[in-house]
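DM between two lab members

TW: hey, do you still have the CDP-alcohol phosphatidyltransferase entry open?
JB: yeah, one sec
JB: this one, 258 aa:
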Amino acid sequence: MSTDVVKTQSEFQKINSCAKRPTDIWTNYLYYTFSLRLVYLIRKTRITPNILTLTALVLVLIGSGLFAVGVRSDVIWGLVLIQISYVFDCADGQLARYKKQYSPIGGWLDQTADRIKEFVVYFSLAYGYTRFHPRNTHIWMWAMVALFGLFLLEYFGQIDMFRGDQFKRVVPEHGSANMAPEGSDIPDTGDTFSRVRRLRSFIPFRSFIIGEQYFAMLVFIAFDAVYPFLVFVSIVSVVMAFYRPVIDYIKYRRRLAA
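TW: and the structure you got?
JB:
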């Protein structure tokens, strides 16, 4: 094996180590496949993490504009752009860690851009759908519930509710809450709770974190299922918004009793 090949592999491994793991399987095996290679390609350029964040935002704005048209071909192109935007969204954090380019404004920009993207995506999907289904106004209700649930998930992912400093978990990239494998921090004491949590760790679903949201969008919208997608996101996000703090509280009480 040549020296150049070894050097390339070593550099890519370094970039790969900058990806936050563990994460959902879709981000790890699908989106990271592209984001890591993007970071490798631009690692020696003047492109900054903030530029990647803004690029992701612009792609979502354009894609959402296509969603709002409501025509099938435009919606598919919008879906492609928004999926690509998530690759840039993953890459900005990876590039920041690789180049050690951290800044308060970068964190603020990332969080603000994510909230804008959520709003425009769900608003445009609902608007585009009603253009061809004007009598189905219930979709606006589902869009609002979906946004409410996603905002709650983001909030619970950022606060340290029921967590002392000794139990504090690292908040992952893009506001995704506790991406450690479910049950990995619960000792198997033989009781029902620990057994259920251990079984839960084998299910390839975290807590509807951002990669799972993007993958769900990919599947539903690819099959022209806009209305079912908004219903699905609404139900899952609201359920997870209750699930997270309840499980956090139970784990917190168990740790205190340990």
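TW: got it. The longest helix spans residues 226-257. Residues 30 and 190 are 36 Å apart (CA to CA).
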